[in-house]
Structures are given as structure tokens and as C-alpha cells.
Design a protein that fits this description.
about 90 residues, 5 helices
């Protein structure tokens, strides 16, 4: 799960939020570990931005690893809860 956080961070710090060499390196490590485990990290344990943008889904599609399709309504709700929490602070 930490690697997903690392990927999210690499994207945030990449020029214009685009895919970078750093993103590629972390994605490669995620791929190696996902293949070794033979299963996907549940989407609920991945940074919501990676699910919203489809990066989580695309990576698993490319690997051919089955994964639970994200419930996009739940994703919207998580985003709303996070924004409400930030606004309250």
C-alpha cells in the first residue's frame, strides 16, 4: 500500500502532474509485487485520486490481474467526506 502512496506522490510532484520516470519506477515496483502476490490491492486501500483517474484500474488491466471494480459512487462519497473534513478544519 505504501507503494501506491509513493506513486501518488510521484504524480503530484511530476511536471504538470504528468507521468514521469519516477512514476514509471514506482509503477514497475507495484507490478512486480502485485504479480508476486497474485492479487490486487483493494481499491479502498489506494489513494482516491489514483482510482478517480483510472490509474489503479489501468495498471491492473495491463498486468492482467483481476481486481474488484471500484464503486464510483463510493469514491465520490469518500471525496466529499474528505473535502468536508478539510473545510471543517
Amino acid at each position: 500500500m505504501r507503494l501506491w502512496g509513493d506513486l501518488h506522490e510521484q504524480i503530484r510532484f511530476a511536471y504538470n502532474g504528468c507521468w514521469s520516470a519516477g512514476c514509471e519506477d514506482v509503477a514497475r515496483r507495484i507490478a512486480v509485487l502485485t504479480r508476486a502476490l497474485g492479487r490486487a490491492t483493494p481499491w479502498q486501500q489506494v489513494q482516491i485520486e489514483l482510482v478517480e483517474t483510472g490509474i489503479y484500474q489501468k495498471l491492473h488491466d495491463l498486468l492482467g490481474i483481476p481486481y474488484e471494480q471500484p464503486d464510483m459512487q463510493a469514491v465520490v462519497e469518500v471525496r466529499a467526506e474528505r473535502e468536508a473534513s478539510l473545510a471543517a478544519n
